[in-house]
């Protein structure tokens, strides 16, 4: 019954991966810790050693996703606000999203749960900080919209591109190219 996992690594990661698989298959509410343990072929006690609740698993997934985003935000905040920096922010964010695809799918399919766990609010704050690093506050409204849309096009690309034929890496690069074009079009000439 087990399926191959992207991250063979440690037990904690395997628990996260299997939990996301089960949440995707049957929904967050209908998945129990017992089922996660069975799919992993470990005892419930072994699972409890790492996570006491399903919520703990989801929160840990968000923390793992947030770490590279927080590092990216900190890095970008210390850089000059050049177009080159903004392009690098998009490139690094695209990389972070690559590994977070299953979590984004979970967020999309379980929006009420995400809101209830308050992780939705902290994620929203990160997105506001990230878009704030791309857009210029004094820029025209259309240019601010371009920068915000660049980030959300990357999120949408995770889902919308599933129905388009092609290599996943080529699709990721195409989404990144569009996001980069949006930010480039929004850059004021004075900030080059």
TrEMBL record:
Residue numbers of the DNA-binding region are 32-51
SUPFAM superfamilies in the cross-refs: Homeodomain-like
| Keyword set includes DNA-binding | yes
All residue ranges annotated as the HTH tetR-type domain in the record: 9-69
Its keywords, alphabetically, are: DNA-binding
Task: State whether keyword DNA-binding applies.
Answer: yes
Alphabetical list of InterPro entries matching this protein: DNA-bd_HTH_TetR-type_CS, Homeodomain-like_sf, HTH-type_Tx_Regulator, HTH_TetR
PANTHER family linked to this entry: ACREF/ENVCD OPERON REPRESSOR-RELATED, ACREF_ENVCD OPERON REPRESSOR-RELATED
Per its record, how is this protein called by name? Helix-turn-helix domain-containing protein
């Amino acid at each position: 019954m087990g399926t191959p996992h992207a991250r063979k690594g440690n037990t904690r990661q395997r628990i996260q991966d299997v939990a996301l698989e089960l949440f995707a298959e049957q929904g967050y509410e209908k998945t129990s810790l017992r089922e996660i343990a069975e799919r992993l072929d470990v005892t419930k006690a072994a699972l409890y050693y790492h996570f006491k609740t399903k919520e703990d698993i989801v929160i840990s997934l968000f923390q793992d996703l947030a770490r590279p985003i927080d590092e990216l935000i900190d890095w970008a905040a210390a850089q000059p606000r050049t177009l080159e920096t903004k392009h690098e922010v998009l490139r690094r964010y695209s990389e972070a999203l690559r590994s977070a695809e299953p979590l984004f799918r979970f967020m999309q399919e379980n929006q009420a749960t995400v809101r209830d766990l308050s992780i939705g609010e902290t994620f929203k704050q990160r997105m506001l900080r990230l878009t704030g690093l791309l857009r210029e506050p004094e820029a025209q409204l259309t240019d601010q919209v371009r920068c915000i849309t660049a980030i959300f096009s990357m999120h949408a690309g995770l889902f919308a591109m599933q129905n388009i034929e092609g290599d996943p890496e080529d699709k990721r690069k195409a989404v990144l190219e569009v996001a980069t074009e949006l930010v480039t079009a929004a850059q004021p000439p004075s900030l080059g």
